Amino acid sequence: MTERLGTEAHNLTVVDRKRLELARCLATDPEMLLLDEVVAGATPAEAVAMMEIIRRIRDMGVTIIMVEHVMRVVMGLSHRVLVLHHGETIAIGEPQTVSRDPVVLKAYLGDRYGRA
């Protein structure tokens, strides 16, 4: 973000504002971060860059709890996934296992794709 030094926050792009928010959080040396749809509004390239930032934060030992609808992001960053459908937990586990769960497939893709 050094290239944006001196820019007022309201003049930053959506993605740069999200980077700034992460930087502010990291300044407190947190043990855990709760992230809510961090790639919303990002282009595919920006989403990849944001994923790399989150991966580095995770690899520093910070626990990350993330609410996200972009499955590429969820599956690319998570060690463990909890899937909600209409407020109810329908699956918990490793991303590869959860992504093949018939109940999850049915909830997100419909009956035709949710059959085992």
Question: Would you mind describing this structure in some detail?
Answer:
This protein is α+β, with helices and mostly antiparallel strands. Strands 1-2 form a two-stranded parallel sheet. A hairpin with a 2-residue loop joins β3 and β4. The protein has 5 helices and 4 strands, in the order αβαβαββαα. It has helices at 14-26, 44-59, 71-77, 95-98, 102-109; strands at 32-36, 63-67, 81-85, 88-93. The chain is elongated and about 55 Å long. It folds into 2 domains: 2-67, no CATH class; 79-116, no CATH class.
Summarize it:
This protein has about 120 residues and is of the alpha+beta class. The protein is built from 5 helices and 4 strands, in the order αβαβαββαα.
What is the count of structural domains? 2
Q: Which strand-content bin applies to the residues?
A: 15-25%
Give the helix tally. Answer: 5
Uncertain segments of ≥5 residues (pLDDT<50)? none
